[in-house]
Structure formats: structure tokens, C-alpha cells
């Protein structure tokens, strides 16, 4: 089994494996190229994203700057929008549904590190170079979600369809569909209902 296969399965893997190092280098270069473009350079941006995130649907818009560890392990649904400073560490798969909006400074972080320093510290592997032990868990975000600014979504988190995650939250577990949730750790505050429709917010139109 390759180190990439171990990584994607959530097993302990060597992050300094040559194949993984090259994939990261490529993603970091493409992220930098994207960040050096302007908003009206739509064709240039599209070409970069086609390479960086091949598993994306139509209508994806990333304001930039963006930071992807691999890109190729991220799946973006239709009409995905991300504001400034989207960071995606996709050592395991990041799967995002349709019509998901993401505020500024959002981080999607699939890596995990051992708690005990004896397991976490750098060491010389049998191939003769310095590395460490890492593993990860996938992140899943459903359809029709709003992820507000400065939210961090951690390894293994699952956010159900129709959720709103409040600003500054740290999502560590599973958020059921149609929930308004916020906090650190992020907790469900209530369900989003028909009464939350704009038609009932008359003060916004007067």
C-alpha cells in the first residue's frame, strides 16, 4: 500500500513521502498562481482551478486568496462560493455539496496528529530522512449550507444539508440537517424552520 493510499484511508502515513511531497508542491504552486490573478481574469482562474480541483462542478467561485494542501482530494458541488482566505488541508477527502456559501477565513482541516509527544515528534524513518506520523479523517458538508466567517471545520466533522454555522465556530462532530449551530465546540442552537423565511422578516423591507 502506498503512503497516499494509507493517507486517504485515515491510516498512519509518512507525509514526507516523495509522491505526496510532489502533490503538495503542485497544489501550493497552483494556489499561488490563482492568488496572483485578478477577478476579471475568469478564463485564467478557471484553467488553474481545473488543474487544482478537478472534482468540482459548475458555478464554483473562489474569491481568493486560497490555500490547498492537495486540491485533488477535494470535491466541490454546484454553485460553491468562498470568500477571502479559504484554507483546505485535504489529506483525507473533503466533500462539499451544492449551493454552499463560505465566509472569509474559513479552514477545513482533515489532518490529525498524535496526542503523545513520543508519537508526534520528528524521527528519522527507515528511508533515512526526517518525518513524522500523521493521519486524518474526511470532512463532509451537505447541500445548501452557509458557513460563516472564521469557522474551523476539523477532521471527521459532518455538516448536514441546510445548516448555518455561526461565525467563529469550531466544528468537531456531526451537525444534523437544517440546524443553526455555533460556538467552540460548535453546538446546535435550534432547527431552522419556515418561520426563518424572509417573508416573515417584514422589518427588512420597510
Q: Can I get a quick summary?
A:
The chain has about 210 residues and is an alpha/beta fold. It has helices spanning about 5-10, 20-35, 40-50, 115-120; strands spanning about 60, 65-70, 75, 80, 85-90, 95, 100, 105-110, 110, 125, 130, 135, 140, 145, 150-155, 160, 165, 170, 175, 180, 185-190. About 30% of the residues are buried.
Provide an overview of this structure.
- With 206 residues, the chain is of the alpha/beta class.
- It is 19% helix and 27% strand.
- The protein contains 4 helices and 21 strands.
- It has helices at residues 3-8, 18-35, 42-52, 117-120; strands at residues 61-62, 66-68, 74-76, 81-82, 86-89, 94-96, 101-102, 107-109, 111-112, 123-124, 130-131, 135-136, 139-141, 146-147, 152-154, 158-159, 164-165, 170-171, 174-175, 179-182, 187-191.
- The strands form 5 sheets. It has a 7-stranded mixed beta sheet with strand order 1-4-7-14-17-20-21, with no helix packed on it.
- A hairpin with a 4-residue loop joins strand 20 (179-182) and strand 21 (187-191).
- Helix 2 packs antiparallel against helix 3 (42-52).
- The longest helix is centred in the first third of the chain and has 18 residues, at 18-35.
- It starts with a helix and ends in a 15-residue tail after the last strand.
- The relative contact order is 0.11.
- The mean pLDDT is 96.
Amino acid at each position: 500500500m502506498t503512503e497516499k493510499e494509507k493517507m486517504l484511508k485515515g491510516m498512519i502515513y509518512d507525509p514526507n513521502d516523495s509522491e505526496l511531497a510532489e502533490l503538495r508542491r503542485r497544489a501550493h504552486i497552483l494556489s499561488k498562481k490563482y492568488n496572483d490573478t485578478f477577478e476579471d481574469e475568469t478564463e485564467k482562474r478557471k484553467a488553474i482551478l481545473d488543474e487544482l480541483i478537478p472534482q468540482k462542478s459548475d458555478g464554483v467561485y473562489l474569491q481568493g486568496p486560497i490555500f490547498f494542501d492537495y486540491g485533488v482530494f477535494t470535491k466541490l458541488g454546484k454553485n460553491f462560493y468562498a470568500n477571502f482566505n479559504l484554507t483546505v488541508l485535504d489529506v483525507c477527502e473533503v466533500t462539499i455539496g451544492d449551493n454552499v456559501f463560505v465566509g472569509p477565513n474559513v479552514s477545513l482541516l482533515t489532518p490529525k496528529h498524535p496526542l503523545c509527544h513520543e508519537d508526534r515528534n520528528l524521527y528519522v524513518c527507515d528511508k533515512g530522512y526526517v518525518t513524522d506520523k500523521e493521519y486524518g479523517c474526511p470532512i463532509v458538508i451537505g447541500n445548501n449550507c452557509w458557513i460563516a466567517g472564521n469557522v474551523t471545520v476539523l477532521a471527521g466533522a459532518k455538516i448536514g444539508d441546510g445548516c448555518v454555522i455561526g461565525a467563529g465556530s469550531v466544528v468537531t462532530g456531526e451537525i444534523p440537517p437544517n440546524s443553526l449551530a455555533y460556538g467552540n465546540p460548535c453546538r446546535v442552537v435550534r432547527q431552522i424552520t419556515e418561520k426563518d423565511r424572509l417573508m416573515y422578516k417584514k422589518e427588512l423591507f420597510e
